[in-house]
Automatic annotation (TrEMBL):
UniProt keyword list: NADP, Oxidoreductase
Protein name: NAD(P)-binding protein
The organism of origin for this protein: Mycena maculata
InterPro entries tied to this protein: NAD(P)-bd_dom_sf, SDR_fam
Gene3D superfamilies cross-referenced by the UniProt entry: NAD(P)-binding Rossmann-like Domain (3.40.50.720)
Protein family according to the UniProt entry: Belongs to the short-chain dehydrogenases/reductases (SDR) family.
Example GO molecular function: oxidoreductase activity
Length: 348
């Protein structure tokens, strides 16, 4: 089974990365969430060089998104870029975004679900959940599921195989679910609660819970990909996968403070990949294996190849947790937007 080791991690960081894969995207629509910075920005620049029919930059900030769009236009000559606003910390914003796409009526070939946050302390979202959990693991699936029928329709009308690429990480190997959480009747509500995340005393173990939160969200990302893929008919021309970009220079960790920030600084100096290098993995997950995209269905991708996921995910207990979390997630998102149930029951 797959194991995460320090030597293996260091070796992978220094492994040679091939050039970015290229493909003619004439007439096709690419959507990159979190396209104004980091991996999302670099991946969007790559897609912009491939003549996309439409290139949608889904960003939270109007000003940062517009600046990114102008830079991409200037550097690549791409004239088909569009800025769309979505805030994954608010379910209503995701719904407005999906409504806009519903009205737009266009095709959607590639959804790069990239946006994520790292928060060292508990913050409550407008919807009442821990913010990192909502952004990384609730709103991103909500967006994907609301856009799902457009991708299915694109596949059928244009004889293509659209892809949903969820950006995960090798840190999922270091995450698991405490027995205390698994014993609760609602895993996701427990993980997102202030009681679970907030320290009761200065030295409480709960500090570690938020310190490990990003790792856990990446585990949940992979579970979502695998659970969704398990429920897609084999005949459905839609590929969903998870990709590990590697440990890269990124502003996602800008909120870290104290010892965590110091450790990350030295790790970046010694091990971090250029952000553009990591972004090639996102592009490959979307465009790789063009002759046989089924090879990437439901898979975890690292170094431009399919890799095995963590022992926990592959274990019987991991499978039970994955199914429970899927049921809880769909129940939760179905209350947010009834279209989730409608789309899944009609298409999956």
């Amino acid at each position: 089974m797959a194991k995460f080791t320090l030597t293996g991690f260091i070796r992978s960081q220094y492994a040679k990365r091939p050039p970015v894969v290229k493909q003619d995207l004439t007439g096709k629509t690419v959507m990159v969430v979190g396209a104004n910075a980091g991996l999302g920005f670099e991946a969007t620049k790559h897609f912009a060089t491939m003549n996309p029919g439409r290139l949608i930059l889904a960003c939270r900030s109007q000003s940062k998104g517009q600046a990114a769009l102008e830079q991409i236009k200037a550097e690549t000559g791409c004239k088909t870029g569009e800025l769309w606003i979505v805030d994954l910390a608010e379910f209503a914003s995701v719904q407005r975004f999906a409504d806009k796409f519903e009205q737009d009526g266009g095709r959607l070939d590639y959804l790069i679900a990239n946006a994520a946050v790292v928060l060292p302390k508990y913050e409550c979202s407008k919807d009442g959940y821990e913010t990192a959990l909502q952004v990384n693991c609730f709103s991103m699936p909500l967006l994907a599921l609301l856009l799902f029928p457009h991708m299915v329709r694109t596949a059928r009308e244009h004889s293509t195989v659209p892809r949903i690429v969820v950006v995960a990480s090798e840190v999922h190997f270091m995450a698991t679910f405490e027995k205390e959480v698994r014993d609760k009747p609602d895993i996701l509500a427990t993980l997102g609660s202030a009681e679970y995340c907030t320290p009761k005393t200065i030295l409480t173990v709960c500090d570690r819970r938020m310190g490990d939160r990003y790792f856990l969200t990446k585990l949940l990302n992979i579970m979502f990909v695998r659970a969704l893929n398990d429920r897609l008919p084999g005949s459905m021309p839609l590929v969903v996968n998870a990709v590990n970009p590697g440990y890269c220079y990124s502003n996602i960790r800008k909120s870290l403070t104290g010892m965590m920030a110091l450790v990350d600084f030295f790790m970046e100096v010694l091990l971090a990949l250029p952000t553009e290098t990591g972004s090639r993995q996102l592009v490959w997950a979307a465009l790789g294996e063009p002759g046989d995209p089924e090879k990437l269905r439901g898979e975890y991708i690292s170094l431009q190849r399919v890799e095995e996921v963590s022992d926990f995910i592959l274990s019987p207990e991991g499978a039970r947790v994955q199914n429970r979390i899927w049921d809880e997630l769909i129940a939760m998102l179905g209350k947010v937007d009834l279209r989730v149930h409608t789309y899944l029951s009609g298409s999956v």
